[in-house]
Amino acid sequence: MRERLGEILWAALLISLPVTSFPFFPGGVGGATLVRPLAVYPLLLLLPIVILPRLWKASLPRPAQPLLAFAVVATGSTLLALVSLQAGVRGVSVQARALRSLATLGLGLALYFTVVLYLRDEAALRRSLRWLYLGMALTLAWGSLQAVYILHFNQDYFDLLGKIQRFISTRPLFERRVSGMTFEPNWFAEQIVFLWMPWLLAAALTRRSAFRWRWGGLMVEHLLIVWGAAVTLFTFSRLGLAALGGLAVLAAGMAIPWGKARRLKGRRLLLWGTGVFLSGALALGLVFTLGQRNQYFSRLWRYWTNPEERGGQSYLEFIAFGQRMTYWETAYRMYADAPWLGVGLGNYAFHFGEYLPYRSWHRQPEIVRQLTPLEGNIRLITPKNLYLRLLAETGLLGTTFFAVFVLLLARQAVHLRSIGGEARFWGTGGLLGLAVFAFASLSYDSLALPNMWVLFGLLSAESLQVGKVGKRMVRRATTNGLTTQSPNYPTN
Description:
The protein has about 500 residues and is mainly α. Helix content is about 65%, strand content about 0%. The protein has 18 helices and two strands. Helix 1 crosses helix 2 (about 40-55). The longest helix is centred in the last third of the chain and has 34 residues, at about 385-420. The protein is globular.
């Protein structure tokens, strides 16, 4: 009974991942925050029913050690900041901010360890991909319905979808961009390229589908890749489209048989290069054509095509990127002043005015808004860069532990890819996902968004399974007097 209930809750968790700002959250669980994953509900039930009973018996992956060390440093830094900080900002107390920040860290850790501990065999990993893809299909279907009013706007249709969106997200729909089931279009684009696309591309590269259905060489994953890429275009997310393009380049690089490249004849190389060039040109043409429908996205080229709109702004200010660099510079100044432990998790907002560079901000209205207290505005500023947030809030110690955690995951992915077979699929998807993480972290800083924790957890879960196989091979070989180690599989 417990295992059956666990399977239902696990499927519910994976299917509900697209909903990241669920409106029906009690205040104590995070009702005043932007990030409100619907997956928290099945997660809270999974923890006592399945995960905690397994925690004391299961072996943890190596990356878990630096991750736990990071959690200890971040918690210590936050508690120390409670002693020095006195006043809050915008009605948010230091104690409330610390509690919420530690809760988001706990949510991320719970997601990672739940994925690692729940998936105990290869069959469970494969079933999980199907549930993950089902959640993707549902949110892509909802995003496709939103794309209709971008191509041809109809107020009644838009209002109807908007009423439904109120039950899914805390933020209304955008008239010129699709946001799926998330808070904003950037989150949706990141979700597509981070949570799902790496595994889909890995399936296409290794020809290992999570489904039995095939039509010739066509798999379900191929259809989801095309569908996901098309919907990403309508988010008009600059980071999302750049990450999607980067993924396509990486996947193409993995598909090239580099060992045979020197033996390829000139004609085949010419055909390959022409195909890549035409595909890239087609993609850029679609981006430019659709981008004309969105004033925000078309800023990327209107700075040159419509110079009268510049208003004395630099290019980075015109495309609304200048304030991001200001947030980053402010975060670095905090780190320079508290290099070892930082200012405490979530405390960037309390020190923002103190460490903001001293210069004129009249051409960056967003900075002015952050410095101007407005009634009803309780949203606190963040660095919008995970690397600099960790440096500013957890210092060099916390950032180092987190970096070691990610590097160990990368090592696992490389090793899995080198083994071949089923492990090659997970290693390929892991490397693609870590590449997206490295790029996307330049634009987001939340520890509560599930995307990275699910990716990290799946990679570690597969590595544990491979490790178990390696141990069995070592024991069997030792019993037969053949060898004392396995050349391909790790034993821990």
